[in-house]
Predict the structure of Dihydropyrimidinase.
Amino acid sequence: MSVLIQHGTVVNAGGSVKADVLIEGERIVAVAAGLDPAGHTVVDATGLLVMPGGIDVHTHLDMPFGGTTSADDYFTGTRAAAVGGTTTVFDFALQSHGHTLGDALTVWRGKAAGKACIDYGLHMAITDLNPHGGSEHETLREMDAMVAEGITTFKLFMAYPNVLMIDDGLMFRVMQHAAELKALCLIHAENGAAIDVIVAQALAEGKTAPHFHALTRSTQAEAEATHRAIALAEMAGASVYIVHLSNTDSLRELKAAQARGLKALAETCTQYLVLSLEEQMPGKSFDEAKYVFTPPLRSKTNHAPLWEALADGSLSVVSTDHCPFRFEDQKALGKDDFTKIPNGGPGIENRLQLLWHYGVNAGLLTPERFVELTSSAPAKIFGLPQKGQIAAGFDADVLLWNPNAEYTISAATQAMNTDYSMFEGWTVKGNASKVYSRGKLIVDEGRFVGEAGYGRFLRTEANAGGMA
Ligand SMILES: [Zn+2]
């Protein structure tokens, strides 16, 4: 079973070239001009770009939050990812208080089993160092077992006190041990304690509408935690990756750390690049609950600096933080109190479309940088040496991208399992034409032709975020 993709333009992070791509089984075996088509299934890619499938390193599928569960499970979520050109996701397994990391791994592998349509890795969120009490810090020892299982990234929350947050001392202990293991620490950077005070004051003043979710979580709260996380990582000798960096105040802290040569990376997410407080959350109606996620939408003035940081390398990755909830029966839980609105938005399907349209078409990113941000850098940072490139020996996760295809985003036609789109009615130019996952055609002109359970669990290599 071999497939020859002919007459396309191969786009890798390092450059573009007119070349044919030969796939045998699950791997790419040759990339060269004028390959002999005899004996192969031939696919004509004239006018198309041949790129490595997208890697979305930040998703929350089938995740419990505030008494409900995110609306995409591993089937519908990875199907939607595939339709949008993404062939690998990293989801977050969450340790519950009183339970071990092993328990969380069992639960999340169970959620994915028989459902994932594309390959997936897991990050492990640490919330409790002593799940059985005492002072032993048994979770630190368990980190070794996780790395042995191929889970080499640990998420730490500086927000959500009493739920997910761990204090600075415990975070520091995890960072010290992560440094020994060459594991990467992923940080949700917001000052949760200060935010909780501000939120309580807002509620006491009767400020219960959705946009107060955004107004009570300032850019300073995010920037302070970004600074603190990087400082603690420096003390511990650990590599750190700030998730969903949303604004210029935090960006300033990141750039200052990078200028000093510290091992600090960050991602931003699609929504922070194209949506804003002014446009989506003016404080007019409960409809704005559709945009309640954390960190919240920021002022438009943050857009240009974030795009610049993507172009100049200060920001390394664009992910989605896909965490979908239906408006009708899930977001509505917070009708009278914004703190009860499940946090998150649907975006896994639209990441490449939006980044291409508003980044590449607008002249802010080159096609090569687009590939780097959406696939190659995630593969490198998160320890997947077999993915993120169109070259012989790599997994045949291949995206045929039509830069001229126009597509209008709508909840009515999307694959995501939500009753709204954050980008309803937006027309973008550039869309996935065909998508291969390890050599298997899984999307054909917008139609999903893959299958539940095809996706494999990916064991990642501990490489300190590629910064060791
Ligand atoms: Zn998240």
The CA atoms of residues 323 and 344 lie 5 Å apart. The mean pLDDT is 97. The longest strand covers residues 2-12. DSSP finds 13 helices and 19 strands in the chain.
